[in-house]
Amino acid sequence: MKWSTFLAGSIIGATAASVLAKKKPEMFATATQAVQQMCSGVKNNLLGKMLSGSMAGVKEMKSPKQEGVSAEQSKKDWEQIEWLAENDPAAKREIENIMSSQKETRAH
Predict the structure, then answer these.
(1) Which of 4, 79, 90, 106 sits at a 20 to 30 Å CA gap from 36?
(2) Alpha-carbon span 13 to 3, nearest angstrom
(3) 58 contacts 49 by C-beta, under 8 angstroms
(4) Are 58 and 46 in contact (CB under 8 A)?
(5) Buried b (16+ CB within 10 A) or exposed e, 41-53
(6) Contact, 12 vs 4, CB < 8 A?
């Protein structure tokens, strides 16, 4: 995600929150309290597990491993992706846009 997108979303969110707080303060207060309680519950739950040394309940944030996929199957899959990308003009344009934006990002 680009920083400009993140900042624009943050500004829009802050603006929406201030408008809601001004027009419907009771609704804003209720929503704020609900979010605060949820965050406190999550924090207390994780802290309790960390302090007790029992982190078994917390799953690791990893992508699932694909077991049983051979190198030959992987090669066939990539060849199919390449074929689809070359034969679909819209996909080809999108791939070129992504590649050019990646080059611009790495240049900065």
Answers:
(1) 4
(2) 15
(3) yes
(4) yes
(5) eeeeeeeeeeeee
(6) no
Query: How far is the C-alpha of 93 from the C-alpha of 65, rounded, in Å?
Result: 31
- Token reading at 2: 């680009």
Q: pLDDT (tens digit, 9 = 90+) per residue, 3-50? A: 888 888 888 888 888 887 888 888 878 888 888 888 787 777 777 776
CA distance 89 to 91: 5
- In degrees to the nearest 10, what's the CA dihedral of 12, 17, 22, 23? 90
Cα distances (angstroms) measured from residue 2 to each of 7, 45, 71:
9, 32, 34
Which tokens in the block code for residue 5? 């997108």
